[in-house]
Amino acid sequence: MSEESSKIAIAFIRMSDIEEITTLKDKTIYRHIGEGVFPPSITLGEQSSGWLKHEVEAILKARILGVKCKDKLRNIVKGLIKKRDTLHI
Fold first, then answer.
1. Which domain holds residue 50?
2. Most buried one in 42, 48, 50, 69, CB count within 10 A?
3. 29, 50 in Cβ contact below 8 A?
4. Is position 29 within any domain?
């Protein structure tokens, strides 16, 4: 297990939390997911899903740092999704 993956605290947030944090509406967030510039949710149950908090924070940090290029954001999202495979519980 890599040291980086062992440091990630696994916490889920809901759409309502993302809307509050970003001030974006769910329709916009789902459009960003479809464009690959926002991480997709994870199914938690039959009718429940959530987002990994650290993934949402990573995208927000990138935006704060001025990343506007969709290709760069897509690469960040792809990297975050790939790291899901390295998470150990």
1. 3-84
2. 50
3. no
4. yes
* b/e sequence 12-25, b meaning 16+ C-beta within 10 Å: ebeeeebeeebeee
CA pseudo-torsion sign 5, 6, 9, 12: positive
**Residue 83 CB neighbour total at 10 angstroms:** 17
Owner of token pair 């990343």: 67
Asked whether residue 41 is assigned to any structural domain, the reply reads: yes
Task: Please give the Cα distance from 38 to 27 (Å, whole number).
Answer: 12
- Return d(Cα 32, Cα 61) in angstroms, integer: 16
Question: How many structural domains is the chain composed of?
Answer: 1
Decide if pLDDT at 12 tops 70. Answer: yes
| 3 state DSSP class of 81 | helix
Alpha-helical segments (H) within the chain: 3-6, 15-22, 26-35, 53-64, 70-84
Say whether pLDDT at 1 is over 50.
Answer: no
Enter the tokens of residue 40. 């997709």
